[in-house]
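fold-stage: in
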Amino acid sequence: MKTELDSEEAEERRRQTRRRVFREQQEEERARIEPRVRAAFEHGRDRPWRELLHTQSDPRLDLDEDPGLLEAATAETYLAVREDDLPHHER
């Protein structure tokens, strides 16, 4: 017969396994993405941001479409950050 303690221990092992698998997946994703991000930064380093857009029109800043997106723009810079990527954001 399974005791409550056995059940709790089994659940804790499952949680640890899920966390380990998640960390491994994140590390694999990071290893795949980091070189692409670095290449993109290198490509865009000396170019004005308008030149990097797929269209020549300025991006539309509309926070109503995506309330979790923080956008900012200057004459030479465009920045968009998702709220859940911020360090203080609680998930």
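fold-stage: in (second)
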Amino acid sequence: MDRIDDAVRKLVQVRGPVGTADVVTVLARQVASLLAANAGPDGDPEALFDTMIRAQIDMVRRMNAIEKERADG
């Protein structure tokens, strides 16, 4: 993910706001390629994507709840 993040930053710096659509297209293709590779030959990339997104959302919600508990003391 760090490599993708670095690549996006470089693309945005080089292309500027006008090239944002190009950056999004590049990212979408990278994500699709990674999902297909991780899903394997018999896997479902869309199902993997859904699972990954749901897991990340759940983690963020848990982290927000922990932060709120810490703030409330």
